[in-house]
Specification:
There is one protein chain. The protein is of the alpha+beta class. The protein folds into 2 domains: 72 residues, Arc Repressor Mutant, subunit A (Orthogonal Bundle), CATH 1.10.10; 148 residues, Alpha-Beta Plaits (2-Layer Sandwich), CATH 3.30.70.980. The protein is built from 7 helices and 8 strands. α1 runs antiparallel to α2 and α1 runs parallel beside α3. The longest helix has 38 residues. The chain is globular, with a radius of gyration of 18 Å. The mean pLDDT is 85.
Length: 229
Amino acid sequence: MAGHSHWSNIKRKKEAKDKKRSKEFSRLSKMIMTAVREGGKDPEMNPSLKLAIEKAKEGDMPKDNIEKAIKKGAGEGEEGALEDFILELYGPDGLAVIIKGSTDNKNRTVSQVNQILKSSGGKMAKPGSVKWLFDRKGVIEIPKSDDNELKAIDAGAEAINHKEDTMLIYTSPDNLNEVKSILKKDVEIDSYDLGYKPKAKSEPHEKYERFLSDLEEHDDVEQVYFTIR
């Protein structure tokens, strides 16, 4: 039994390490794709892409993964050009969720998201049935630190939501570019977009952790917003 227990502990640690690595690769891929979509796929002509590739290499991301992310950002996926999407969902216990992303095959993406929902007891929601629980906001994601939080406040952030390794900085939709420009002088910007802020405060809960993590790790999903219904 002792040997079995030791093996189980090793297996759990390896699974946790693999999951963390997968999540980091997913974050880096999205950073590369965003940079390509904004400035093109030539890193010598696109400083944001060059920085994203450097960070991917520092994170030991395989060369094939980097090249795949660049092609996907440029709309060179097997199915063709990228298409932005917004999906409204109900997760476990009525957790209201909006996910944003881009895909080269929306039918495939919806089918895969449905599988995540099915395993958690969730379901797809009709367009508009979840959005009323959120306010439209500018959303900037930056690395989490006390120093960055103070800089975000000084830059004009309306609110800040802490994630595991990053922070979501909320602005008014009209003020997104101004706050982003101020932050960019001193802070690494992981992503920015017009997104959603829950009207009611929602803190991550252990019972939703696996569900939200599965959504965030999906290759086509760029942001996940949620609140308790």
